[in-house]
Amino acid sequence: MDIPHGYETPNEAGKVCRLRKALYRLKQSPRAWFGRFTEAMKKYGYRQGNMDHTLFIKHMGGKVTLLIIYVDDMVLTGDGTEEIKRLKGYLSSEFEMKDLGGLKYFLGIEVARSHDSIYLSQQKYVLDLLSETGMLACKPVETPIVQNHHLAIYQDQVPTNKERYQRLVERLIYLSLTRPDIAYAVSFVSQFMHALSEDHMAAMMSILSYLKVAPGQGLIFRKHGHMEVKGYTNADWAGNVTNRRSTSGYFTFVAGNLVTWRSKKQNVVARSTAEAKYRGIEHGICELLWLRILLTEIGFKPQGAMLLYCGNQVAREIANNPVQHDCTKHVEVDRHFIKEKLDVKLIDIPCMRSEEQSAYVLTHAVSARVFQDSLDKLGLGDIYAPT
What we know:
This protein has helices at 29-43, 81-94, 123-132, 162-175, 183-189, 198-211, 273-298, 313-320, 332-343, 368-378; strands spanning 47-48, 55-60, 63-70, 73-78, 105-106, 109-113, 117-121, 218-222, 229-235, 247-254, 257-265, 306-310, 347-348, 380-381. It is of the alpha+beta class. The chain folds into three domains: 1-98, 2-Layer Sandwich (TATA-Binding Protein); 120-211, no CATH class; 224-380, Ribonuclease H-like superfamily/Ribonuclease H (Nucleotidyltransferase, domain 5, 2-Layer Sandwich), CATH 3.30.420. The chain has a five-stranded antiparallel β-sheet. Helix 7 crosses helix 8 (313-320) and helix 7 (273-298) packs across helix 9 (332-343). It is globular, with a radius of gyration of 24 Å.
């Protein structure tokens, strides 16, 4: 640690701070540690990512080496094996560290490999969660949330255990890192943590019952022979019974593999279905732009316009219409942002059929058949399922 600013020791050079408690207990310890690590990586020739400050990148000889860190756990990858060995040696000389070999487990996420794919799941995390909540012997259900649930905040609702509910929501939010199938359900139940009822707790138990079906389900990444970046976006209209706000959702794919997704209640009340879906398009475009810059930093800049699929014809027509009408003034800022990206050919919004809309499960509670069809399109799988 450095001497605090403002504390001068003109005749006492070489003095240091005496810590009266562990460094990890101090509020400035994460900043001090990450600053020290960043300084060491930059000194060795690595560049800090602009889109993700925990990502460090180095290009040398046509090859790329990447390091990403979370607190003191890091993942190192790239196509330059010699550079990876040199970086390990450098980090060992700078810090006290241990090389755990090939990536198998990282922050609760299990990594499995085959000759042609990589599989991410949180099976142990799910089983531990079911065991702690007493749901290991529960009856499985086909969907994480029932269709036409009408969950809201009512005046005569029966209260329940608030602390337990909040802990479960926090754990499910972390689980949704590898489980896009529960993204909508978790996003919805998390809106009632301040005023929950027995109905909300029953919805929470329904999510846990769904996890019992396939605790090892996760993401599969394979080579598809292209580097196309595309997304699917959707939004409901006034789906929240309490305040009539809409829910936006999007999936994004890179090289044919699902990489990011989100289901989130919109900040304002939409006055029409077109407006709700139009704001959903904006959220999808922002995510695609973020991915484009990140891929460019790594060295895989997308070629051509990125595709963003939206099933609402009116929203697409507003986006492509160069004339500003009175009926679109309430979304004027969103409209100019979207039109600007369309004009420079960064984004294209093609037509699609409703049954091809994968993002529908991020904004609606659907039937078991529609839910399963969507999961098949997303490329989710369970390598632990019996064959």
